[in-house]
Amino acid sequence: MSALLQPDLHPARSVFAHDLLAGLRQRQKSLSPKYFYDERGSALFDLICDLDEYYPTRTETALLRRHAGDIAAKVGPHADIVEFGAGSLAKIRLLLPALQAPRRFLPLDISADYLQRQAALLRADFPGLIVQPLAGDFSGPMTLPPLAEGAARRVGFFPGSSLGNFNPAEALAFLRQCATLLAGGGLLIGIDLVKAPERLHRAYNDAAGVTAAFNKNLLLRANHELEADFDLDAFDHYAYYHPGLQRIEMHLLSRKAQRVHVCGEPVDFAQGESIHTENSYKFTVPGFQALALQAGLLPAAVWCDEDALFSLHWLVA
Ligand code: AVI
């Protein structure tokens, strides 16, 4: 689906129904993580970002604060900035005071109503800034509006290591699209790093159960939007690190043999069978830089924290 300009567009329910039923018919049942982000899912994700165990957000935030001046110098004056998967807009707020007269800010997110509210709050706090929210999906081909009048270049911002939620082929395709869409400018991207599995395990299995609620929100969403009858207590949140694939896998595990209905269609689960709901790939700095180069983006700067938990990259397009 393209990134569409209509700010009030919701991804069609029939698309969710189609993708869910198709995913549940596979041998390994699965669903794209993009369906996490309805209103409640976006709010739960914001709670995850504040958890002690979830180190990526505060580590990336510290990097953005510490290096805002250097980043602004790379971005240059009069940039037209597009943020992919913009969510709460908390991270662009850290850069805006350092950026040199940005021409416009285009936050793009799949969660349309949430995005509108966050955009209104940002406008109120940065009255001179043109904020033009785009409701849409950045996991496929994207169409962006023409460069803003007077803009020197287009710059992409993709924080949070959301690239890690794509499979390797999708990640390469996304970066290739960035190389084309941002030609003459660049991409600032946050990338989570490979580290001790225990640390990763804690980050995706928090003690308060927020990540579990976020994962199960997919089932709740299907119940509300598709007249499904998932019993949330009959599924467990299950997340683990796969060192060979360098990724966290999240699943919803059926606690028993059961039949569920989605849009009136029966779906059977064996005890212990799962729906694979998310991958979160972790990278090494050289590994990510090689991927960027393969996509036609030139690694020009990287900033990391002292514990090598997280990295921020400036890639020239
Ligand atoms: C949005 N994305 C980068 C998060 C991640 O860490 O992969 C989503 C998430 N899933 C569970 N916790 C957070």
TrEMBL record:
<dbReference type="InterPro" id="IPR029063">
    <property type="entry name" value="SAM-dependent_MTases_sf"/>
</dbReference>
<dbReference type="Pfam" id="PF10017">
    <property type="entry name" value="Methyltransf_33"/>
</dbReference>
<dbReference type="InterPro" id="IPR017804">
    <property type="entry name" value="MeTrfase_EgtD-like"/>
</dbReference>
<protein>
    <submittedName>
        <fullName>L-histidine N(Alpha)-methyltransferase</fullName>
        <ecNumber>2.1.1.44</ecNumber>
    </submittedName>
</protein>
<dbReference type="InterPro" id="IPR051128">
    <property type="entry name" value="EgtD_Methyltrsf_superfamily"/>
</dbReference>
<dbReference type="InterPro" id="IPR035094">
    <property type="entry name" value="EgtD"/>
</dbReference>
<keyword id="KW-0808">Transferase</keyword>
<dbReference type="InterPro" id="IPR019257">
    <property type="entry name" value="MeTrfase_dom"/>
</dbReference>
<keyword id="KW-0489">Methyltransferase</keyword>
<dbReference type="GO" id="GO:0032259">
    <property type="term" value="P:methylation"/>
</dbReference>
<feature type="domain" description="Histidine-specific methyltransferase SAM-dependent">
    <location>
        <begin position="17"/>
        <end position="315"/>
    </location>
</feature>
<dbReference type="GO" id="GO:0052706">
    <property type="term" value="F:L-histidine N(alpha)-methyltransferase activity"/>
</dbReference>
